[in-house]
Amino acid sequence: MSVVRIEHVHKQYQLGEQTITALHDITWSIDAGVFLAISGPSGSGKTTLLNLIGCIDKPSQGKIFINEEDVSEKSPNQLADLRARSIGFVFQTFNLLPVLSAAENVEFPLLRRPDLTAADRKKRVGYFLDIVGLGKFADHRPNQLSGGQRQRVAIARALAIKPSIVLADEPTANLDKANGREILRLMKQINRHLGTTFIFSTHDQKVIDHADRLVQMEDGRITAFGIRNEAAQSWNIAKARNSAPSITDESIAN
Description:
It is a single chain. The protein is of the alpha/beta class and 254 residues long. The protein has a single domain, classed as 3-Layer(aba) Sandwich (Rossmann fold). It has 8 helices and 11 strands. It has helices spanning 46-53, 76-86, 102-107, 118-131, 147-160, 177-194, 205-210, 249-253, and strands at 2-15, 18-31, 35-39, 61-66, 69-70, 87-91, 165-169, 197-202, 213-218, 221-229, 234-239. Strands 6-7-8-3-9-10-11 form a 7-stranded mixed β-sheet, with helices on both faces. Strands 2-1-4-5 form a 4-stranded antiparallel β-sheet, covered by helices on one side. The protein starts with a strand and ends with a helix. The relative contact order is 0.17.
C-alpha cells in the first residue's frame, strides 16, 4: 500500500512578475515502511517536494494522496488536523520551544488532539522519551541539552502523534559526525521497530548510506529511483523517464 501517492504535480511560485517553477510534473508513489532519502543539489526541488508531502504547501497542479486520501483541495484547518494525526516533522534546527521542558516539547503537538486525555498525553510522552533514551532528561529545557539530545527530543515529538510518516529536512546538518550517525541509527531502529515511514531531504551522504530507498532530483524533476541491495551493499538505480507514470520497486529490482 502507498503511504504517499503523487500524480502529475507541478509547483510554481511568483517572484515579482516572474513565475518560478520549482517542480515539473512529478508522479511517484511511496510504499509504507520505507526509509527513503531524497537527494539533489540546492534548488533541485527536494525541500519543496517534502513540504507538499507534509501538507505545509499545496501543489499548483496535480494531486497528492496521503494514506490514499486526496489532500490537494483540503482547507488549512483540515490539513492541520491531518498533520496532527499522520505526519511528524524533524528539522535541522530542532525547532524546540526554549521555555518548555523536553517533556513539554514532546507533548506540545498532542494538545491539538481532543481525543487524548492528559493521562494519555503523559503516557505517550514518557514512552517516546524512553524510546529515544531521554527519559531521565524529561524536565530539562533545550539549553540544558546537547545538540544530539535536542534532536532526540525532536524525534520523540514527531513520533508522539503516532504518525504514519516522519519527514526529516536535513536532520543531521547541525550535528557533528558522531551524533549524526547515532541519530540516523536511532531513526532506522524506530523505522524497523514501529514500521514508521521516514522520508529525508538531504545533502548528507551518511543519510543516503542509511536509506533503503533513494530518489535523486535535479531542476525540479525526479531523475532516478534506487533500491538498496543489502547483500551487495550497493544501489539498484533506474533512471526516471518523463513518459513513465511511475517506477515500482519491482521494476528497479528487475
